[in-house]
Each structure stands twice: as structure tokens, then as C-alpha cells.
Amino acid sequence: MKNIDSISHVSGKSVYVDDIPVLDNTLYALIVPATIAHGVLKKIEYTGDHSDFVRMITASDIPGENQIGSIIPDEELLSSQDIHFMGQAIAIIVAKSLNSAYMIRDEVHVEYDEYKAITDPRVAFNSGNIIGESRKFQCGDIVWADCDTIVSDRVDMGGQEHLYLETHGSYVIPTERGYKVISSTQSPSSVQKMIARVLGISMHLVEVDVNRLGGGFGGKEDQATPIACMAALAVNITDRPVKLILDRIDDLKMTGKRHPYSADYKIGMKSNKIIAYDVIFYQNAGASADLSPAVLERTLFHATNSYYIPNFKATAYSCRTNLPPNTAFRGFGGPQGMFVIEAAIDKLAEKSGIPAYVLQEANLMKNGDKFPYGQITDNLMLTDAWSKIKTIKNVYEEEIEQFNHNNKYFSKGMAIMPITFGISFTNTMMNQGSALVNIYQDGSIGLSTGAVEMGQGVNTRILQALISSFGVSADRVKMETTNTTRAINTSPSAASSTHDLNGWATLDACNQLIRRLEKLLIDEYQAGSVEFINNRVIFNDRSLSWDELIQFAFTKRVDLAAHGYYCTPDIYFDKEKEKGHPFAYYTTGVAIQMATVDIIRGTYKLDKIDIIHDSGRVMNSNLDRGQIEGALAQGLGWMLLEDLQYDDNGRLLSNALSTYKIPDINFMPDIKIEFIGANNPLGLMGSKSIGEPPLMYGIAGYFAVRNAMRNHKNIDMAYKTPLTPERILMGLFS
Ligand code: LUZ
Ligand code: MOS
């Protein structure tokens, strides 16, 4: 099945928040951002007389709690006094037109006392600015004396802008029954909960509706919430509909990104087996917790990537700095954990003279191996994927040797990257989904779930599950908007788990309805076996069309609506012991990447990548390919291009697409994807989740470029990302 949104996307008919026709009396809101990164707000006033000015809303106007922190209550909706980052919301301007709102905002007068900003996580750590508790994962006993090769080093990773095409936005309408909230959020229930908190009302008065998002990538898991809260607050005060859409510049400036990390490690091996790994992570959390503690936890889960390491210790600190609060981003801390172990293996390879791929292979996880946090692996396709990659590697190697022999000013290299990504929210409680299946009396069907469509194709996958269950064609089904009145207490669409959680819930609802329809056929026709296929139901020696069956069921007073529910079985995690079985299963795969470096210019070309990916039983190869290609682009961009820069005062320097370079079609390598995998009993229709895992194939890009440099000459270059042409050039000439 093609993505069911593809025609409306390419014809421009897909509707996003800013496309919704507004009511006549709609007002327009803009956020007034702090222009310093650390300090105290002394005064804020608007003394102008613009005829379109309606209100300036500040912290003291909030009727409920001025608090939107979800894991830790450390984040005000509007600053009441303290300024923690540049771009922090200090007021909301409400005006009769958007243009006027911009003019009014320019005339707002603000005074501050300014303090020195901290932007570096190690500086924050050294001055005790830690969010929550430090975390430590540990297993075995590290005995360095047992190792024959030991290396240690520091690793630094940059952040990453989500750059969803649709910026944050919300349109809130006051109704007779409370608030109707249209929001570009991955988490409708969080928006509902926080609006209720901020306005001091109950959740049932807030209805949140999401049609689709123009991309989320984690950026709208938590940070859509304040935008919707501010619009709702403006509605509360003005009693008129309010629209708040961030323009690109505001969105880049005000919202958090992927966490930059700094890390120190020490790793040791005996012959080619890694027997000891000790690593410390310093996460740059930004000014408040947001989702940082959960991101930090996933870094620890993935700190050994796809390798079995018997003696292991990882310590992680979430460090508070004066940057916008960093947040979820596809991979959610996993990529940072994986990059450090790959850097450590790279350095071990350099020191021992054993190629990295030999070390990677020798330490690859097998089914039955245990992760440091206690989960035993099964249904991993790592070894199968690896053996296929090995064949491809021989071809790559030959090409590289020949090329490098014949070229003086260009150098080729390659790298292999295995991935093992745990599927489930690491917070067990969040692994639940629900669905509402309504069958109308003419046989047509409306399906509501907690899943938010953000381009990933989740509606298509869940539709596939429903039609395979009922045996009806897709044109009988409407995928409804995600709405907190129809799907309640939803988890965010995140953690690569949305289609599993909401798809299984849909199948639960379908099964209930099928049982009711079967019972009807047994009662009325003494039906033996009943089969739903090709828009018909077949039983005994006869059949009815689906529509006839439903019309009949309606006349016989069968309930034609069902609520379905799913929660992932058998997962748990004990945070005291830091042990458990947090993941339903793992998505795995292996990639091999080739790159060519221009020795004179420091530029590079990503030649090609071969990916052997375990998608379980592939349920939609179009969508799976799309997810792999998109995630790979983001992973490669993070590793090689996207240079997120703040100055020492906490000002975002890469504040537009002229200063922040993202992947384009010319940057991307030729991509070959082969699917392997077996039926996965815990995945929807036997599949495996795919949203986040392939991002980490991008890590191969970094090491392919680094190895191309190394194939030219010995280099002594810090492990620091992104590996931009500037850094390559400095590395080649240092
Ligand atoms: N969000 C979250 C996530 O709240 N918990 C998770 O474990 C997670 N993992 C990946 C992406 N988003
Ligand atoms: Mo996410 S990083 O919102 O799965």
C-alpha cells in the first residue's frame, strides 16, 4: 500500500494547523523572547498605542500553575523573574492581525540584570549544575590488568535542529464546552494535561485535535505543549479564538534540539575481545529538564550498541546550561551512546593494528547474550546481517584499494555500523495505546487512535492492520484525526512505538467486533467457520457482502462500535537496581558506507551505502524504505554537516538555513537496502519498528570519512562531530 497521504501531499491538499480557515474574530499571538541567556527580568512594558493591540500577557496573568515541566517541575510557561536561556518566553503579545503583532512586539521594552551564561556541559557539571540524579549502569568487574590493549579518550558530539517543515503552531477556539485546541503536537494528551494545569481547570474541558504534522522527529513530543498552552492562555484572557504559529526564525531560536554530549571513556580488550569499558557521559540538557532524564537513560541503554561487553560501567549526568531546553530527537540519546563506543573501537583498532570491523565482528551480540541492564536478547538478526555485509565489504575493499592506488589527491575509505535499538518507551508506564472503531450502518468505518500522523505513515500501517482484520478494502475506512475525546490518555507518538501500540489496540477493537458479528451469524444461521475476506463474509455454503452483514447486524441490534486497548506485555525496569527487561524487542541491522575525501580541499563525497536491515516481516516496504532513507539522511547530517553553534553568551549563531547546513539530494550516497527478518510476534503484523533505528546507520558516515583520511595519512584528530570540511582540513594538516 502507498502512503495514504501521498496524493494530498503532492497536490497540496494536506491540511496543517496554519492552513485551517480561521473564525472571524480570531486574534494572533506572538511570543516575546528573552534576549539574554541568564539573568533576571526587571521590567517589561508596552507603552505604544497600536490600534490592533489587544493584550500583553505575562506570568502574573496565569490563572493556574505557571509550570510545564513534565518529568521535573522546573520550567515556567512564562518567566516570572528568572531568565535561563535566550529565547525563553517572557510575555505573549495578542493583536488583531499577525503583522500588527510583529510591529507591537518590536516595541516591547524589556530590562534585565544579566549574569554570565554557561553553555558547556562540563563547566555546568564542575559548578554543580546537575538535573536530577546521576545514573549508573554496571555489570561484571572491570580489571584493567586483564587487558592487553587499553585506550582512553574524550568524545564530543554536536546537537541537531529538528527542522520539521511545519513549525510549531496552535489554534485554540473557546467553545460552549471549554477549549478546542488544534495543535501541531506529537502528544495530544500532554497538551490537554498542561493546558488544564496552566488554566487551573480539569482535563475534560480541553479537547485537543491533531490532523497531521509536517514532521516532528521528537521536536514536538514535549515542546509543542508550551505553544498550545500560551494560545489557550490568550483565549482564557480574551475569550476569543487565538492562533499562535512560530515563524522559522522564532522556532529555531526558542526550541530545544538534540542534546550535545561530551564523554570520557576507557576501553580494554584481550586479544580481540572487549572485556572492559568505562564511560562517563555529560549531557548538555539546556535550561530545564524537559525530557532530558529519559534521553539520558536511553544513552545508557545503548552505550554498548550491538556488542557484548561483560565488564561495563557507564555513568551519566544531565548538565544544566543556559541553552534552550534540549529535547527528544529521533534516537533519543541512543545515537550519542552508540557514537562513543564506535569511537572507542576505532581507537582500539588504531592502537592494535587490528581493523575495526574485525573487532566489531568479534564482539557482536548473539541471541542469548545479556545487556548490562539485564535484558537477554532474542530474535536479533545481527549475525545474519553481518555475514551479508562481509560479502559486500570485500567488493568495497577492492574498489577502495584500487582507487587509492591510482589517486594522490583523493582518498577513499569505508566503515561498518551495526545497530541494535530497543523498542518501547523506557518508561514502562507509557507503553499503552488505544483505538475506537466505529462501523456505520452502511458498512463504512471510522477509525480513531492515539497515533499522530507526522509523515511517518503510521495511519497507513494501522489502516493495513484494520483492513486485513475485517477483510475490507481501504476505501471503506476513514482515518480520523487524533482527538483526545476519542482516544484518551494517549502516550506521545514517539519511541518508534506508535504503530505497534495503536495498531495492536486497533486489532483488539476489530477482534471484539468480529466476535460480535460471528455470534450473530452463529445465532441466526448456525454458521460454522466464518471468514472475512474481499469485502465479504463467508460462512457455511454462503456469503454476504460486508455492507449487507453490517446492515443486518444493525437491524439485529449488534453494537457496532468498539474501544480497543493495548499495553506491551512483560516489560519492566527497576531503577534502583538499574536492571530489567525494558524493551519489547530490538530492531537490528548493519550498514557499510564508502566515502571519498578531497585531500586538498577537505571536502568529501559520500559514495554509497549498503544496508541490511531487519524489519521483521516487512509490512510496508515503501514506508520502510522511506523511513530508512529519511533517518539515514538525518544521521549523516548530524555526523557530518549540521553544525549547531551557540556563542558564549548563549546566542544561537546557526539561526537560519544560510548558516545551518542540512543534507540534500546531492549530499546523500547511493542507497541500497536489503530487508532480512523473521516474523516478530510482538510487532504489528509480524513487523519491527523502524522510525528511529536507521538514524544510527549515519554514524558509519563519520567513520568512513575518517578512514578515508587515515588511508591517506596518519591523523591525530579529536573525535568531535560534526566532521565538517573545516575539521577534515585541520585534521589532515595538523
Ligand atoms: N520518548 C520517551 C522517546 O518519552 N521515552 C522514550 O523511551 C523514547 N524513546 C525514543 C524516542 N522517544
Ligand atoms: Mo521521539 S525522539 O519523539 O520518538
Give the CA-based shape.
globular
Task: Say which molecules are bound, naming each kind only once.
Answer: pteridine-2,4(1H,3H)-dione, dioxothiomolybdenum(VI) ion
The neighbouring-strand order within the major sheet is 3-5-1-12-9-10-11-20
Overall mean pLDDT stands at 98
In CATH terms, the superfamily of the largest domain is Aldehyde oxidase/xanthine dehydrogenase, molybdopterin binding domain
| Largest pleated sheet | 8 strands, mixed
Number of spatially distinct domains: 3
Assign the CATH architecture of the largest domain.
Answer: 2-Layer Sandwich
User: How many strands in all?
Assistant: 30
Name the beta content range. 25-35%
Helix coverage percent of residues? 25-40%
**Spans of 5+ residues with little confidence (pLDDT < 50)?**
none
Characterization of this structure:
By secondary structure, this protein is an alpha+beta fold. It folds into three domains: 6-115 and 163-254, Aldehyde oxidase/xanthine dehydrogenase, molybdopterin binding domain (Aldehyde Oxidoreductase, domain 4, 2-Layer Sandwich); 261-425 and 575-733, Aldehyde Oxidoreductase, domain 4 (2-Layer Sandwich); 432-567, Aldehyde Oxidoreductase, domain 4 (2-Layer Sandwich). The protein is 29% helix and 26% strand. The strands form seven sheets. The chain has an eight-stranded mixed β-sheet, with helices on both faces. Strands 7-15-14-13-8-30 form a six-stranded mixed β-sheet. Helix 11 (458-470) links the parallel strand 18 and strand 19 (477-479). Helix 11 packs parallel to helix 12. The longest helix is centred in the last third of the chain and has 28 residues, at 498-525. It is globular and about 80 Å long. It starts with 5 loop residues before the first helix and ends with a helix. The relative contact order is 0.12. Bound molecules: pteridine-2,4(1H,3H)-dione and dioxothiomolybdenum(VI) ion. Dioxothiomolybdenum(VI) ion (MOS) binds next to loops.
